[in-house]
Structure formats: structure tokens, C-alpha cells
Design brief:
heterotrimer; A mainly alpha (314); B mainly alpha (287); C alpha/beta (234); A: 314 residues; mainly alpha; ABC transporter involved in vitamin B12 uptake, BtuC; 71% helix; 0% strand; globular; B: 287 residues; transmembrane (chain A); Branched-chain amino acid ABC transporter permease (chain A)
Chain lengths: 314, 287, 234
Amino acid sequence: MELAGLLTYGIFFLTLVGIYGLLALGLNVQWGYAGMLNIGVAAFFTVGAYTSAIITTAESSGHLGGFGLPFPVGLASAMALSGILALGVGLITLRLRSDYLAIASIGIAEIVRLTLKNEGWLTGGVRGMAGIPRPLAGLIPGYDATLYLLLVLAFVAAVYWANERAWRSPWGRVLRAIRENEAAARAMGKNSLLFRLQAFVLGAVVMGLAGALYAHFVRFISPEAFNPLFATFLIWVMLIAGGSGNNRGALLGAFVIWIVWSATEIFVTRLPEDLVTRAGALRVLLIGILLQVILLARPQGILPERPPRPERHE
Amino acid sequence: MDILQLLIYGIVLGGVIALGAIGVSLTFGILGFANFSHGDLMSTGAYIALIFFTTLAWPLWIALPIAMIATAALALAIDRSLYRWFRTRQPVILLISSFGVALILRSLVQMIWGPDTITYQTGIQMPYRVAGLRIRPDQITILLCTIFLVLAVHLFLQRTKMGKAMRAMADNPNLARLSGIDTERVVLWTWVLGGGLAGAAGVFLGLDTRLHPEMGWTLLLPIFAAAILSGIGKPYGAIVGGLVIGIVQEMSTLVIAAAYKPAIAFAILVVMLIVRPTGLFSGRSTV
Amino acid sequence: MSLLSMEKVTGGYGEADILHDVTLRVEAGEIVVIVGPNGAGKSTAMKAIFGLLKLRSGQIRFDGQDITNWKPDRVVRRGICFVPQTDNVFPTLTVQENLEMGAFVRNDDIRPAMERVFELFPPLREKRRQAAGTLSGGQRQMVAMGRALMLDPKLLLLDEPTAGLSPIFIDQIFQIVKQVNATGIGILMVEQNAKQALAIANRGYVMAQGANRHEGTGQELLADREVAEMFLGG
């Protein structure tokens, strides 16, 4: 591959790592901070992507809208809608054991997936949605992708900074306390429950943001890209591999696992012709085994969680 | 379509869901985690039966037990190689691991048998007609086998020492340990029973519809709903829960698009969680 | 030689020790009561005997054998049965099934043992097919004790058997404890109703802050002014 091609691939690669990094950061607030099992990351990711797409695309007969509104409006709506969805799921399962949240969250993911496929008027169904505008395009001719990468990285940095502050704040401390002793926390009154709900909603808002950024990056979305494998499972593997409870770990996990995932693609394309149709399954198998190995050998991840340094008083 | 006709379909589907829900309910009660790989265990069982039932053309009454035993052995092997190590840690780690196991099983099925739908037998079965209602011979087989298996499980749980110990451990794991019950052996039997029933449920699902790598995963939500409906950790309730979910799912096609059938299970689940989180039979508490 | 002896036992559930040099003994056929304020480590001392605790130092001997840090099922087989304070029955199992579970480690005929339990607790015989969760508090306590007696233990550990029961039942429970003891079974009991418990006890221990404070016969402790003021509510 020539240098230019390598550079293009590098930019493409890093943008996706950034988007997955955001998803992992969102999940880290839910699982790493608050111990809330969200097995339906895909739901919030999807809602984010489709919301922003509907808001910003030009009017189309293929789906609802589009409303042709500016990118920031799409982004804000995506985050808001994901947050509202999370609020609903959170309110239902807040008082229950974490298993029930897990079950309810795959339920929501399933309903979102069914809606995606069956409600063509809303989402374009299996034909998907095309022509999603990419912001900053044409600002510096020839550097669209680079500019977009910078935009994504700016969001990653902002969310990382916010997450770190939250971790050190009293809010983060209460969440950790709840996580350590769910039973006691449930007995503690409404306030602690409210903290968990906030964590769940905030995590989902970040996932919605990631969804929107994804839509504007790939510019064509269809149900295919939002199956539970890509949009839920990989993110879990990333967070656990990187180190749940550690934001740097979440980002590192996104980077490493995306490399592994991409490498498996290179590996399976070299298989004999007749096996290639089943290669997708092989990649999933490898990632599935990788998760088990991590859980067995290094459950705390590459960068384990650390208690925050005591705040300095000046 | 006729309501009675849908009722029949609902009972057949409900039986399949119930067989799955018994296993989920037992693993939840005894091991304390929601097993997300149970649906894919069912798919695996269905595909194992394909080897004997379709490829080798053995009769169902041989292929079914083989599939059940193989699925039980698989469940046990997964427990020994993975879950056993996570048991002393938080139960949520088990849940996450089981989610990974679900994907491993599904991708294995897809690698071995391919991603397309397969049927056990080609050709169209002529349904029996009784009083204007249609029922296929396969569906009668499913119903009879389900009744037989549920009765067998009932007798096992009610009459044998191990069955009682399983119920005891689902009731109160700490007291079971204090009473000197060999909890590791109870766990082993839980996987044998849950895995075997999952295998059977998978075969029945394949007989009723078609085989597809995602067949079990799609049914996981209704199974969880049935288990929660009945009060999780209560195997008997799971039977009623399964029937309720199955029948309501089929009946729902009168009002909403058939594509949303799986969503109905979720709707029931949500209502249950809000109204009566301990389940209809008030089993172990959800909080 | 004592039936059970605990020598300078120190330990807890995790990092922090709850018990500090706790020493106590039970002679064969005795009723021994541990009293003391909340958080004194009374129940923890019992759990230590039953292998539910991590011990850092000290020794527990039972019937001439060192059982320090044995696992619960091994302790059960050796002849000590434990009745926890709460959640001490299998609620959806019938009374009879509860008793059967108590005898899980036995492979011989358990009917004589069950018959003895029914003779000790006649109300259970009528309710043998009823789910234990549906019984009254006092009857549930009978099931719990009956389950523990199914292995013919030499020593029974009772953790606050009267907690949460009405006064009528409390008398009944102490009556039952005496009855069980009359069959030759040693009893070690933690009790909040200290006066009544010490009244039926051969000996008693007063614990505070995870350590021994006083010991003596039941009568001595009841008569001791300081003990009465500190722990028995005047």
C-alpha cells in the first residue's frame, strides 16, 4: 500500500476507534462507575445514529423527514432521544437486581432493531438511509476526513475530561459505593437510586452522541451495522479488556480491540474461497473466546481501576 | 385467523418457551445469574439433532434424546471450563461471560451449518383438521413430548433426593450449604437438566418452524419473560409463564404486525416488572 | 475433655478481625448461652465454629479432633448442626422435605430420625405436607431445629432462636431447647432474651466487642450485679 493509502486508512481507522472509544466511555459510566449491566448498547447507538440522520438529511420519500437541519441540531437531538430512552428503561428497572436491567436492556435493543427493520416510513427499513451530510466538509478541500477525525477526537477528549471529573467528584464516590453493595444501596433511599439513574442516562447520552457521529461518518446507515454484535458485544469486550472503571482503559480497549477485530478480518480473508462465506462467524468466535480469556486471566483489564487521588486543597 | 387456531399455535410455542424457561429459572435460582447463552444452547441442540434426524435419517425418538444428551454435555462442559471459575466472583461476571458464550455458540453453529435457514424435512406436511382447526403432525409430536418432559421434570424435582436438593438450593442456597448438601453436585445436575431441556426445546422449535443460527437468541427474551412472569427460580411457574407468553404472542398477531411478536414478550415483562416484580407465583424476590 | 473448645480464636470475614482471642467450651450434654450487646461478635463466634469465617489464629476442637477452618459440610458430617437466626427453612419445600434435606449427607434409612423429630415437635407431624414458608414463626423454628436434628448431632448451634417471636412462642422455644438437650445433645446458643436463656443454661459467656468479658454458671451470671446492669437491662 502506498503512503497516501495508508494515511487514508489510518484516518478511517482512528475515526472508528474514536467513535467506539466514546461508546466504551459511555458504557464505563454505566458499568464501570455504577455497576449497571447494559446489554443493549446497540439500542442507544442506533437511536443516536438514526435520529441525527433524520434531522440532518435532505427531505426524502424513503424515510421520515429529513428535515435538513444543521449538524449540531442533529447531534443534540440524538443525545436527547437516547437519554429519554435510557430514562424509561432506568425507571422500570431501577429498584431491581442488575440482572433485570440486563434483560430489559436487550428487550429495548430488540424493539429498536425490529422497528428499524419494519418501519420503513421512519427509518427506510432494510434499504437504510443515504446522503447523511458530513459536517465541515469542503472547509479545507481534500481534508474532509481529517477534519472529521479531529472533530471526533475533540468529542472524545471532552467526554474523557467530563468522565474523569465525575470519577473524582462526590457523585462518582456515591456511585462506587452503590456498586460495591447493591443490596445496601437499594435500601438507602431514593437519592442513591437517582444517582444510578443519572449515570445510566448520561452513559446513554454519550452512546447517542457516538451513534450520531457514526452516522455522519459513514453517511449511509442500514440495520446491518447496528446488530448486537458490533454495537453491543464489541464494546463490552473493549471495556473489559481495557479495564472497566478506568477511562484511559476504556479508550485503550477500544483501540486494541479494534486492531484485533480488524486483524481478524485480514486473517479470514486469506482463508480458502469456500470458507470465506463463514468467515464472519469465525471472527465473532475469536472475539468471544478473547472475552472469556480476559475474564479468566485478567478480569481487571489492561489498566485496572484505581481509586481517585485525593483532591488537592490549595 | 380464528382465535382457537391461534390458541393452538400459542400452546405449541408456549411449550417450547416453557422448556427453555425451566432451565433459565433453575440456573437463576441455583447459580444466581441470568444465563444469556440459554437461547443459543437451544439452537445448538436443534442443529445437533439435524445430524441424526436429517443427515442420518434416524427417527426422532432416537435423534431427540441424543440431541438432549449432547446439549446437556455441552452445558456441563461450558460450566466446567468457564462458569465454574467465575462462580466465586460476582454473579454479574457470569452473566457477561454467558453473553460471550452465546456468541461463541452462535458463530460455531454458523460456521458448521452456514447462515441460511434449514428445515429438518423437506416437503409439506398435511395438517389434521379437527372441528375446523388445523394442527400439523409435528405439532402434535411437540405437544406430547413437551407434556412428557414436563411430567418427567416434575417427578424428578418432586420425588428424587437430587431434585429436592435442587429446589432447596433454589430456595435458600446458604441453608443448603449449612445442611451439608453437596452444592457442586446440585450445580452439575442443574446444567444436565437445564441443558437437556434446552436441547429438546431447540429441536421442537426447529420442528415447529425452521432452523436458523439466531433461532434461540430470538426466543431468549420470551424465555426470560416467562421465567420472570412466574417468579424467577421457580421451575413450576416457568411452565405456566411459558404458556402465557406463547399464547399472548400468537394472539397478538390479531392486533399488531406479526414482525413485532417478540416485542410482546418484552411488553409483558415490563408490565410485570412494574406491577409485580416477584412474579405471579411470588418466587425469589427481584430486589 | 470438652465436647467443643474454642481456644483464643481471632479472625473475621475479611481484613478486619471481629473476634479477638475468644475462648469458650461446651461439655457434653450442656446448654451454654452466649449473651452480650449487639455487635459483640456472638453470632460471629458461632460461625467461626462452623467454618464460615477466616481464622487468623486460635484453635477449635470438637470431640477430640481439631476442626479449625473445616468447611461447613465436613463440620456437619462430624456432628455439629447449625440453625441460623433468619432464613432457616426452605420455604417452598414441605416440612417433610425440609427434614429430608437436613439428612442429605445420610444414605441410610432416615425414617427413625424423622420419627424422633415428630415426637419432639408433634405439630410438625400434622403439617408434614405443608410448605414450610406457610407455617407460623414458632412452627418454622421447629422445622429449622428439626432439620438440624436429622443427623443426630452431638452439638447444636442456635443463633438467636427466639428473635422476632411473640412471648408465648419464646417460652415454647426455650421449652423445646430443654427437650432437645434432654436427649443428650449439647447446645450452644446465642440469645437476646438473656434472662430466660441463662435461666435454662448450665453455663454462660458474656461477650463484648468481640472478646470474652465474663463467664460462669447461668445462675452466677444472673446474680452478678455488673453483668445484670451492663447486659441484662437492669
